[in-house]
Specification:
alpha/beta, 6-stranded mixed β-sheet, about 180 residues, 8 strands, Methenyltetrahydromethanopterin Cyclohydrolase, Chain A, domain 1
Length: about 180
Amino acid sequence: MKAILERMHAGAQHRADALAADAAGLGVDVSRLQGGARLIDAGVRAPGSIEAGRLYAECCLGGLGRVAVDPAPLGRAGILEARVSVGQPLVACMASQYAGWKIQVGKFFAMGSGPARSLAAAEPLFQKYALGSRADSAVLLLESGALPGAEVAAHVADRCGVAPERVTLIAASTGSLAG
């Protein structure tokens, strides 16, 4: 289990780095908050994109799943269809993807998903299943209509036991392309 949890953290970090590396092409904005945390706006103020959403979803799964987005027929019209495949569903979905961590700092509120949940182990399911983990960095995806500030990053760093500059927050509103 430890090796899978380590892969989850590395997989999310890899996809977050991919989002940041092609920020302009993906329609995302990358910045550093006071304290050093990296903030990736994938669909709050930034327009985001379908590919940013695909990477966001794979990041939510801790890199333990693959997401494909392709056109699909819907009567005479067509829609985009997301197909998800996961090889380690308990870890990918319950320890990472599930948006179960309520992040409330001051007036900011978001639901958090991603492998940082496994570091904080703040939800009852982490007592039921042995999915708590340790890592030197934390990736947390935030479903929110507002961007988090440095105080949110400091809260996440504290709860996850990592330095603030080792935190990556990726935010998207549920109504955005990425969300």
